[in-house]
Each structure stands twice: as C-alpha cells, then as structure tokens.
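Researcher: Here's my situation. A collaborator sent me these components and asked whether they could plausibly form a single complex. I don't have experimental data yet, so a predicted model of the whole assembly would be a useful starting point for our discussion.
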Amino acid sequence: MNGRIIAFCCEHSAYPAADLAGRLRLHYPESLRVIRVPCAGRVDVIHILKALEKGASAVLVLGCEDGACHHITGNIRAKERVKQCNVLLKEIGVDGRRAVMFSLSPNAPHKFVRVANDIAKTMKESREAR
Amino acid sequence: MEEIKQAMALYKKILVAGCGTCVTVCWAGGEKEVGILASQLRLARSAAGNDIVTLEATVERQCENEMVAELKDKVAEVEAVLSLACGSGVQTMATMFEDKPIFPAVNTTFIGMPEKEGLWVEMCGACGDCYLDRTGGICPMVRCSKGLLNGPCGGTRKGGKCEIDPDKDCAWVLIYRRLERQGRLDLMREYYAPKNFRAVKRPGKIQAAKA
C-alpha cells in the first residue's frame, strides 16, 4: 500500500472547492491526489477498485450536493456505485471505509479539507491498529 | 465470492472469461463484471500476500464454438479459466479446452426477461409443450407458484396476488384478465390434461433439417 488517497473530484463542485482550499492556503494531507472528473457519476466501480489495487489506501468520490448535480443524477449514481463497491470490498474482507463518497458545494473548501483530513486520520488509525 | 476465492486458491494465473450476450444484459457476466471480479480477486490475493495474475476477455457468445475459439491463445497461457457465462457457456468452454479446468462464476437459474431495470423474472420453463396460445401468452407452469395448468387455485388474494408470495401477481388472474381483453374467456372453461413432459427428451437436442 502506498498510502495515497485518491480523490475523484467533480469539476463542478469538489474540484473548485479543492482549488479554493489551495488559494486559501488551507492544509490537507500531502498523500491526497486529486483527479478531476467531469462528474462524480463518471467514476465507476472498476476505477475505485483499480485505485485500491494500485496501492491507494482510500478512494474518495466527491460530487455535488443532493439536487445540485450539474448532470442531474451523477451524484446519485456515484453514491450507489460507492455503496456497491463497499459490498464488493466487504466480500473479500477489505475495510469498506476505504471507498467513500461525499457531497460538497464548490464554495466549501473547508469541508473539502475536513473530509480529506478525516479520511487520512481514519486510514492512519486503521494502519496502526493492524 | 468466497466459493470463487477458494476455487481459485490453487492457481497463480487465470483467465476471467465473460460472455457478451444474456449474462451481460443480466449484469452478471459481461465485460464490466469480468473487470470487477478480476479486480476483486487480485485485491483479495494481494492482501493475502499471494498474488494472482488475471487475463480478462469477453466474447460475444460463450455458447458458440467459433466465438469461444477466439480465446484459444489466452486459455493456453493460463492454469484455469473462471467463466462468467451461463451453464451452456461454461460447458462449451469446458468441451473446447478439455485439458483446462473451467470454473463457473455464476449460478444460472432460469430463462426470464427483465421486468424493469434490475429485476428479472422467470418466464419459460423450456418444457417443449407450449400452451401460451391458450393462456393469453402467460405461462402458468412457470409463473404460477404452484405450476397449475388448470387454475387458479383457491388461494388467490384480493387484488389478484399469489397466496404463496403476496408480492407476486397470480398468474391465473393475469391470464383471466388477458383473455377477457381478447374476448376469449371461453378458454378459461377448457380443461387441460396433464402436460406431456416427455415432449423434450432430456438432454435436449435439435437438428435442423438439411436444405
């Protein structure tokens, strides 16, 4: 495990939020890698699984708030896919918390940072527990 | 998943083979499911410190020799094949590649149709003695919980639901309504003698007439 956290960020919400976090000089874990996607709904189960396979400690799917998806239902689809992913991971005895979905608006850099720090902390704790 | 994991425990390099037809539309064994299952296996094995190499391939139809033959080179490379096709596909593979163990990754259950997105229901029992013309195109043998040829039974619930499964429509109520719509209710008065279950000799086989 390379300990990286992969964040698939919707370009209409989480990506601007991450951008804003940078401009505000807010700190988030250096292990986080942002991948810009046109919509959280673009992220498929296989993308999440492959990220984990390649050594990511966790995968975040960050999309728009409920009812605010630029592509109408992308965030709902993303949520369902992450849920499915959790089931698949559970089947093979992998901690389901390693794939999570969050909704945030483009003007929520603090929430972006909180989510990123939280997941990094959870992963660190679970590593130490092992 | 546990069953698949155990079956694959002995192997280090396998082919995960999907089928592009029925199991694809049933979300059970198409290209996407092949990718996911292979990834799950790799993740599980690498977590156990016992890596597995997976080749992935999906052919148009795993029940046709010509299409399965496309997998020849890939099968030659691996120790075993995990097939996500229906039972027919698994057996076609197994016959074509006799020296390789072929494992089924899905449990095939019935011939059905998608009622709505994500819901499949059994429609046909492939009995070889079709009565659908007389039952308004609804098969009571398969769709009635009791498989009654002369129905309904006495247990139909209010609203036309089945006494065994209240979520299910009573097939005989559906048949009645359909025939009523077609003005063919007299068919409900017909008595059907027990079906000829010898219409198809099992295992089934059909030879097309030579031109």
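Model: Some features of this prediction you could bring to your collaborator: The beta strands of chain A are 5-10, 32-37, 58-63, 99-103. Chain A has four helices and four strands.
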